[in-house]
Design goal:
0% strand, single chain, Four Helix Bundle (Hemerythrin (Met), subunit A)
Length: 213
């Protein structure tokens, strides 16, 4: 005897299809922060930990290995040149802020000018740092001081190069008119801006630690 088929209530098939899901659930997204900004912030946190490991090595060499004098004889550091370079990089924080405020207010010319000036200042900083390396008189293989000095300042220089790459892309897009007045379209400027502020802050810490203290 065949069993009679029981008809599904109206709309039950639709509800079953709605509840049927294959694969992992969709990621929960906060309404307060977008994914790109969250991503760059998490990346910066990881970079802070990376710099922290280099600073730990630096202070170990300075306090434990050679506590008498720093930098040890006969090393000398060009504090004046590094100070001028610090002023250049700090100035770039104001220009990138000017670019960010420009795009938020719909002033595209301010955005373009701020990005271009930031890029030029960053390139100048990198050029001065490389020129400093050439005239220092010691290399990364010159005792532990040379190794940690080049490692710490070189790590920051690598981050400046990455920041310049991001700024190059943002500047090209700005001059091609890729950004408009909609807030959600500003991430191409805001994300490099956040990263550049991080680069500037880290250099102030490196400069104060290596050249001043």
């Amino acid at each position: 005897m065949e069993s009679a088929s029981v008809p599904l209530p109206h709309g039950a098939g639709g509800h079953a299809a709605e509840h049927e899901h294959h694969g992992p659930p969709e990621a929960n997204q906060s309404s307060r922060i977008d994914r790109q900004t969250l991503g760059i912030l998490l990346f910066i946190i990881s970079e802070v930990m990376l710099f922290g490991s280099f600073f730990a090595s630096y202070f170990f060499l300075r306090v434990v290995v050679n506590p008498a004098a720093w930098p040890p004889h006969p090393f000398e550091l060009p504090v004046g040149v590094a100070g001028m370079n610090t002023a250049i990089l700090v100035s770039s924080s104001f220009t990138i802020h000017y670019a960010l405020e420009g795009i938020r207010k719909g002033n595209k010319q301010a955005m373009k000018l701020g990005l271009a000036l930031t890029w030029l200042l960053g390139l100048t900083f990198l050029f001065v740092q490389i020129n400093e390396y050439v005239h220092l008189g010691f290399s990364i293989r010159t005792e532990s001081f040379g190794t940690i000095f080049y490692s710490l300042t070189g790590l920051h220089g690598a981050h400046v190069f990455i920041g310049l790459t991001l700024l190059t892309a943002a500047t090209i897009r700005a001059f091609r008119g890729h950004f408009d007045k909609e807030p959600e379209k500003h991430l191409g400027v805001e994300v490099p801006g956040i990263y550049w502020h991080f680069v500037d802050i880290m250099w102030i810490i490196v400069f104060a630690t290596v050249y001043i203290l």
